[in-house]
Amino acid sequence: MTTIMWKRLLIPLTTLALLVSCKTTDVQRVLDGIAGVNQPLSEQTVIAGLKQALQVGTENTVFKTNRDGGFSSNPLIKILIPEKMDKLASTLRTIGLGSKVDKFELQMNRAAESAAGEAKQVFYSAISGMTLQDAWGILRGGDNAATNYFKRVTESSLRQKFQPIITTNMQKVGFYNDYQKLLDTYNALPLTKKEDYSIETYVMNEALDGLFTLVAEEEAKIRKDPVARTTELLRKVFAQQ
């Protein structure tokens, strides 16, 4: 993306950031000043605008994932039975126990959906702690520069917050009991290799992968479709480009 295109993107975003921070009496003055958009942008304005854009993007990501169906109804991030359990799943479906496999998958997705709500504050902290160097690195980086920033800064904290929620959610819905029954049913079949899979790490990794996949989608909107905003104020501001 060229420098000119980024400036066109950041001008309305930074204007929004100023609007959010202004007193009510100052809002019209800021809007009236949009005509001067060709003036050079200060570094403070650049970082304020980028932070506002990333906050909107991460809020959208959490909203999409932290609800029933957030993972399970989205083919892009739906958590499927682990690849190493494909033989187990296929065998159980063959003998008429496909519903047990489907329930197993749904419980994994529900656990991820429950944990996703914890991402909001972690993302906010990452945005608040963003340095000027970080901001310019995102602006001048590749298409996934912001997503990669979030991965680097937030993944460790997200794992710490997600783990107890995923475990508690699995316990609450009887996942471990159902999971053990699934394994016992498979292991009881003749001529099958006895298996014992650890599933928590898999669900954790899939939940984080899904979350960052949607963060990347939001980043693409910021970079390529800045007019696609959800509030009347944003539409008015972007219309001034």
Describe the structure.
It is elongated and about 70 Å long. The chain has one domain (about 5-240). It has eleven helices and no strands. The chain is mainly alpha-helical and about 240 residues long. The longest helix is centred in the middle third of the chain and has 28 residues, at about 145-170.
List keywords for this structure.
0% strand; mainly alpha; 241 residues
Topology:
Elements: H1 3-21, H2 24-32, H3 43-65, H4 86-94, H5 98-115, H6 119-128, H7 132-140, H8 145-172, H9 175-187, H10 200-224, H11 232-238
Strand-pairing-aware structural class: mainly alpha
Residue fraction in strands: under 5%
**Shape verdict:** elongated
Which residues form runs of ≥5 with pLDDT under 50? 1-38, 228-241
Counted by DSSP, the helix tally is 11
Total count of strands: 0
Between the first and last Cα atoms, what is the distance in angstroms?
A: 17 Å
Following the backbone from N to C, one meets helices and strands in this order, namely HHHHHHHHHHH
Q: How many distinct domains?
A: 1
| Mean of all residue-level pLDDT scores | 75
How can the largest sheet be summarized? Answer: none
Fraction of residues in helix: over 70%
| Rg result | 23 Å
